[in-house]
UniProtKB/TrEMBL annotation:
Protein family (similarity comment): Belongs to the galactose-3-O-sulfotransferase family.
Compartment(s): Golgi apparatus membrane
Protein name as annotated: G3ST2 sulfotransferase
One matching Pfam family: Gal-3-0_sulfotr
Tree of life domain: Eukaryota
One Gene Ontology cellular component: Golgi membrane
Entry keyword set: Glycoprotein, Golgi apparatus, Membrane, Signal-anchor, Transferase, Transmembrane, Transmembrane helix
Entry's Gene Ontology BP terms: glycolipid biosynthetic process
GO MF, any single term: galactosylceramide sulfotransferase activity
Amino acid sequence: PKTDIVFLKVHKSASSTVMNILFRFGETHNLTFAFPIGGGNQLFYPRHFLARFVQGFSPRRPQRFNILCHHMRFLQPEVQKVVSRSAVYFSILRNPVQLMESSFVYYKGASAFSHAHSLEEFLSHPYLYYNPANKDSHYARNLMTFDFGFNPNGEVSAKRVQLMLEAIEASFDLLLISEYFDESMVLLKEMLCWDLDSVVSFPLNSRDSSTKSPLPDTIVEKIKNWNRLDWEIYTHFNRTFWERIDRDIGRERMQREVKALRERQAELARTCLQGTGSVAPKDIKDSSLRPLQHGNAKILGYNLKQGLDKETERMCRRLVTPELQYSSALYKKQFPQKHP
């Protein structure tokens, strides 16, 4: 199994669920994480990543960390200072239409969104609300482009798009697609030589469907145009994702693998969870399992079954622990003397 990993955690793209998988694997195999200085959950985002943002990094005696997965704005030369040369790089993408809709709800407090009553209103006259000079403007336009380290307000010329796609391809070994999460996990498992249980997960940081609404076609087109760079990234890597499946696994085997993954997930849900799945934040009984609530989104969580034996309880708890709580626990374990 590969243990040196860089995961670029792209906002609002099922990346908290992927992070849980990395946290569990790292904890099980006693790996070191590149934590932000003083704990916390972001590597001085939205600034471009620098090696000195990592707790325990020193240029004089560079320490290599196994897993780098906290929110950052990608800058590969700096990333290379904190991980081994053989590290595997991967990230996850989401359809920019759903991504924008999700961001609008989740980052409602951001300067670009706070005065617009609806996404429709924002998209009708974006420059009434959007000022690229504001320090939180990246949440409102080409968010994936920004997280990958590029300029979200750059011109959309064929040449520039081509250079951006080539740069991403040169840096990353795999780009997952959140709409095909299970297929993505199968590809990830293959690439990292992990077993099935290492990539099983329950969806984390997902929001209640009561705050979601279908988007009319006119808005969909406006979102694509407003986020044209993200759209170019997504459509390109969605295509190469399926090309890779055809080349490395084949559709039939992929179907079998996805079926096995879903069956194992269902089995774990029956073992671990009260009821059939996620519940609203107010219904989460154990406050340590309550995810951070943000913006206008209602972030769902889980209740564990009572009376599980110690080993099962531990495994189940790790599957449903929200990102911030899990990150903080691992930080304390890695740096027992430095409590955030």
